Task: structure prediction
Amino acid sequence: MNPLETSKNLNATRPNQNEIVRATEAGLPAISELAGVIWRACYPGIITMEQIDYMLARMYSLDILRDEIRSQGIRYDQLLVDGKLAGFASYGPTSEPGVMKLHKLYLLPEMQGRGLGSRLLQQVEGEVRTGGARRLILSVNKRNTKAITAYKRNGLVIVESVVTDIGNGFVMDDYIMAKDWSA
Ligand SMILES: CC(C)(COP(=O)(O)OP(=O)(O)OC[C@H]1O[C@@H](n2cnc3c(N)ncnc32)[C@H](O)[C@@H]1OP(=O)(O)O)[C@@H](O)C(=O)NCCC(=O)NCCS
Result:
């Protein structure tokens, strides 16, 4: 299926034109750069700047992103607003059949609060449901109330609380959220 065809029917904002396009490896440097901008704007107050830099290096280096696409079955969907990269979502399989994980969902600060995060999320949900998944899960920092609200608005519920040691003295203090649907 051509993602451009899919997204044509989903435009949610006016007067901006937005579309969702699957990223190829050529798009990964721009995603990595955008992630740095968004993380440094959104996460101060939730985690320290040191942890932001540490996690960006672990999650957004080009080698990591390439490996996700090449070897882990992870997809990156780019949100383009008036042709410019404004956000992205990534998602992929888990060890449990039928369960897909939303790994990343990020919008530039000026693009938040317009329903665009929901649009990306709905696109992801449509893709994984078409692929036969029965459940979508994600982890979100417990202090990230804006994201938790957006996820709840889209039918996800908190199912677990987890603290994960990620090394260097840092932890991720997260909720696991999930959405189930019947096949
Ligand atoms: C979390 C995030 C992806 C949510 O995206 P979002 O677009 O801001 O959230 P939604 O899609 O739920 O948008 C809803 C908001 O847009 C408004 N809106 C405007 N037009 C809308 C439309 N057509 N449809 C739905 N909502 C619309 C709603 O009123 C609501 O505003 P409010 O938050 O002031 O109540 C985004 O805020 C983000 O990138 N945050 C920083 C990074 C982050 O924390 N990512 C998640 C990591 S786990």
Q: What stands out?
A: The chain has a mean pLDDT of 93. The two ends are 20 Å apart (CA to CA). Strands lie at 18-22, 75-81, 84-93, 99-107, 135-141, 157-167, 170-180.
